[in-house]
């Protein structure tokens, strides 16, 4: 990284809940709401956005751990802001506190860990793995 991440660095990922982000509970006569898998994706992207300006061209980051609570439903059309704040740094491992809020309440909170990686080394490892299949 051209600048080491610092405790307190933050990133955001903002979106409006659309049909492709939702789980449809129509068979249970419930309205469509933000799905947990997309919520995890959005929270991971908030953390990724915190690190993106710090990474060099040969680096990227990957998620290695997610521990979140999905506290409330967000219906279609709801505006959601996901935030990630660096809370611990251990070499290439960066720990984040994450949360998501909609226009009326917190819908998620938890912890997320990302690892800074060398892109070429990662690609070679995946190629070796694919070669064994």
Structure description:
This protein is of the alpha+beta class and 133 residues long. The protein has one domain: Roll (Thiol Ester Dehydrase, Chain A). It is 22% helix and 43% strand. It has two helices and seven strands. The protein has a five-stranded antiparallel β-sheet with strand order 1-5-6-7-4. A two-stranded antiparallel ribbon has the order 2-3. Strand 5 (79-90) and strand 6 (93-101) form a beta hairpin. The longest helix has 16 residues, at 36-51.
Class based on secondary structure composition and strand pairing: alpha+beta
Distance from first to last alpha carbon: 33 Å
Low-confidence stretches: none
Q: What order do the SSEs take from the amino end to the carboxyl end, as H and E? A: EEEHEEEEH
Write the layout of secondary structure elements.
Layout lengths: L9 E7 L5 E2 L9 E2 L1 H16 L7 E12 L8 E12 L2 E9 L4 E13 H13 L2
Antiparallel strand pairs: 1-5, 2-3, 4-7, 5-6, 6-7
Short overview:
The protein is of the alpha+beta class. The chain has two helices and seven strands. It starts with 9 loop residues before the first strand and ends with a helix.
Features:
Thiol Ester Dehydrase, Chain A, two-stranded antiparallel sheet, single chain, 133 residues, globular, alpha+beta, five-stranded antiparallel β-sheet
